[in-house]
Amino acid sequence: MKQTKLFSYEDKDTIIHRLSGLTKLICFLLLTFAAMFTYDIRVLALLTLFSLFIARISQLSFRRYRIVIIYLVVFMLFNFILNFIFAPNYGVELFGTRHELFTFTTGYVLTVEQLFYQLCKIVKYISIMPLGLLFFATIEPSEFASSLNGIKVPYKACTVFSLALRYFPDIQRDYTNISLAQQARGVDTSKKASLKNRIRNNAKILLPLIFSTLDRVELITNAMELRGYGKYKQRTWYSRRPLMRNDYLAIALCVLIFIAVLVMRFAVTKSMFYNPFI
Predict the structure, then answer these.
(1) Taking the complete model, does pTM exceed 0.85, yes or no?
(2) Nearest C-alpha neighbor of 34 from the set 57, 50, 58
(3) CA distance 235 to 231
């Protein structure tokens, strides 16, 4: 059975991977906040293209994160449907015009304005999705912890984040191993079994997975205590890298993008949304 390690570091030699962990964290926050500050579909479309371009040069494999992307698509689909069910006329109220497309029942009329509003929300989600996948795939856990500590986050909290990121692949590996062991005992968790049996049989994996997790937590805790972890208020980081020329250029580029989004939001459009119906 092939294991797919989600939310784990991909060691590659690209210009994105060679950036400092602090640079990646700052750029990720700037671009994410830039997308959060606006619903202007023009700005969000440009941010999406920029995110996909960065993902391309970092050699990010979207196939590896297929299951995550499927869940996100399902979430966006439900969000799209529920938005229309609970607020079918919000787009009309937002843009101040009404262009009807299709009437379902009384009170549920699909309008161009509502469709455009919900499209803006979907593009907003899409613009952020590659950034999140890119961040997890290009930053090593210890480097992530050192970058958090670089912006004055307490090092104990940084270590917690680092261990959590390191533990995702371990959980997936343990789950796969336990699943294979259960299948060897005749517990079928493959696609050949019915959905009901698969759910029931997968539930049998949870208990040994929980116990193996607790064993690993105890092992790590004892190792950290034996090494005197937490004795001092400060610590050094072996994985911390100094900021180089490319780091400053990347930060400057993301700062410019963030400022440009703020200018569009507060000076040009003076609104969260771009209104093409005026």
Answers:
(1) no
(2) 50
(3) 10
